[in-house]
Amino acid sequence: MIEAYAHNFIKKLLKKDSLVWPHNLTLSRLVARSLRRRDRSIFKLKVNHHDDYWLGLLIPLCWYSSDVVLLLTAKQKQRLFQVEIPRLKDEGVNLSIWEGNTPPLDGQVWLVDHKELLTAHRKKYLKGKQLIIPEAELLSKRLREAMAMQISSANWDTLRRAYPSISLALIDLHERLTRKLFAQSVRLDGVVRLDLQDVFVLNDLCGLMGQPPSPWSTVFDAIGQGWASWTELNHKVLDWTWHLQPLEPLQILNQLFVDSSFIILSDSLSNEFEFLSEIINVNVQLGAQIHQEPLKLFAPLRQPLPNAECFAEHVLVQSRRLILGRQGLTIIILDDDQLLRKLTAELAAEFGKRVIYQSTAPDSNGVICCSSYWWLTSQDQLPSPEQLVVVILPISSLESPLTSARVEAFKKQGLDWFRDLLLPDLLTLLPKLVLPVRKNHGRIAILDGRLRARVWGEKVLDALEPWIPVDRLLPD
Predict the structure, then answer these.
(1) Is the dihedral of CA 450, 453, 454, 460 positive or negative?
(2) In terms of Cα–Cα distance, which of 141, 160, 230, 248 is closest to 202?
(3) Read out DSSP for 99-134?
(4) How many Å apart are CA 476 and CA 463, to the nearest integer?
(5) Residue 165 to residues 102, 171, 373, Cα–Cα distance (Å)
(6) By three-state DSSP, how is residue 319 classified?
(7) Could you give the CA distance from residue 449 to residue 399 in angstroms, rounded to a whole number?
(8) 275 — phi, psi (to 5°)?
């Protein structure tokens, strides 16, 4: 019955609005069926943008919302409350939402973010619930950020006060770690990996002392599970902050998926979800090949590799040529912060105030130099750019302690850490970076010589399809 209501409602909308994604009709029936049968479902959707499938997801929830947990980011919540729910009200239907810390009592859809999901799981509030997870291709990354911990000197002081009998031993351990970390540092206020072997003694010291204060119980669990561990140094005060993040958060939450029914929506799924293959009831790919305007791609042959001595000069020369005469916004992406700041300064010396560093207040023909993460999180605050310049392909660097730890784990399993880990991450990220440029019928330039020189460059080009080559930079 739910399927029929949802199907008929969206059918009416399609007659009124031809811009509604037509496959919402099928998606609504699939979602309604999965809710009714409490299936474990994965829907792989071919859409131009994640906003396209909101209606197909939400309409069934207007008739069936009991025991449903909807996992959204802050950005998705904003879209839900400002656009989607008002649109549903205009069409005469209501979606009842609950945002409390405990489950709703009257059958509302329980809206949670990733941190709230973890808390609810820990408190066993998710038993018998149905999870709905949009943009699941980013789930692992978002969970990793939600589970991340930071331990400062204040946390060490709390631990010492809780266990006064071993206070001197804890002070000695902290001082030994401090000397070792600063000795390993190669630059001021750098990041240094902290080997978990160096802190196993914490378990020995505190293991027989009773329940530790927050957040140390979670820290001890993380040490035992081999989380990525690194420190951020502050040379000015000779202090450091300890960071911990899980390598594969989906494996930690494996039991949650085993015990729950769920609906996962994604435009691509990595190998991280292979552990679900034996329990999936429904696995559907929905939507035909999307017609998109081709990107204009400038990626000439025989460009230098990022480790070449001439690369910095090559990037500066090409960036000047790409910026010259452009009337719209240009975004320059580079994840090497030192090289990014140097390039920003050199371009600002030539183009003046047009060039800015990671700011959301550009001129109409401005040039924003930024990291890929900054661009990804700031797209909605900026006009669609006319041009995107990718200086170095945003492949996670092995200098990142988190990436290094994940690579080591892949090596221990005998896996190809580049093709099974770093390359899939790049292929998931890149289309999201170029989407605003594609919508604006703009141009993308890739200055990384590996695109043409490496065999895997073909997969990167495939991820950017459709595109047409720009062989020469000519004035408009």
Answers:
(1) positive
(2) 160
(3) --SS--SSS-EEEE-HHHHHHHHHTTTTTT-EEEES
(4) 27
(5) 39, 12, 45
(6) helix
(7) 21
(8) -65, -15
DSSP-derived pairing of the beta strands 282-286 and 387-390: unpaired
**Distance between CA atoms of residues 57 and 118, nearest Å:** 23
Sequence-separated (6 or more) residues with CB below 8 Å from residue 359: 368
- The tokens of 253 are what? 């939450």
d(CA 46, CA 283): 14
By C-alpha distance, which of 92, 21, 88, 98 is closest to 59? 88
User: What pLDDT tens digit does each residue of the chain (476 aa) get?
Assistant: 678 877 777 787 777 776 677 788 889 999 999 999 999 999 998 876 777 889 899 999 998 888 999 999 999 999 999 999 998 998 888 899 999 899 998 889 999 999 999 999 999 999 989 999 999 989 999 999 999 999 999 999 999 999 999 999 999 999 999 999 999 887 887 889 998 888 888 888 887 777 889 899 999 989 888 899 999 999 999 999 999 999 999 989 989 999 999 999 988 766 677 778 888 899 898 876 556 778 999 999 999 999 999 999 999 999 999 999 889 999 999 999 999 999 999 999 999 999 999 999 999 999 999 999 999 999 989 999 999 999 999 999 998 899 999 999 999 989 899 999 999 999 989 989 999 999 889 999 999 999 999 999 999 999 998 899 998 876 55
| Residues in a beta bridge with 443 | 296, 387
Q: Which two tokens stand for residue 164?
A: 């006064």
Q: How far is the C-alpha of 6 from the C-alpha of 27, rounded, in Å?
A: 10
Structure tokens of 252?
Answer: 């930690």
> DSSP letters of 20-78?
S-TTHHHHHHHHHHHHHHT-EEEEEE--SSGGGGHHHHHHHHHH--TTEEEE--HHHHH
CA 245 from centre of chain: 14
Nearest CA-CA partner of 320 in 337, 336, 343, 304: 343
* Residue 40, C-beta contacts closer than 8 angstroms, at least 6 positions apart: 257, 261, 262, 276, 279, 280, 281, 282
Q: Are 130 and 66 in contact (CB under 8 A)?
A: no
The closest alpha carbon to 248, from 226, 232, 263, 268, belongs to 226
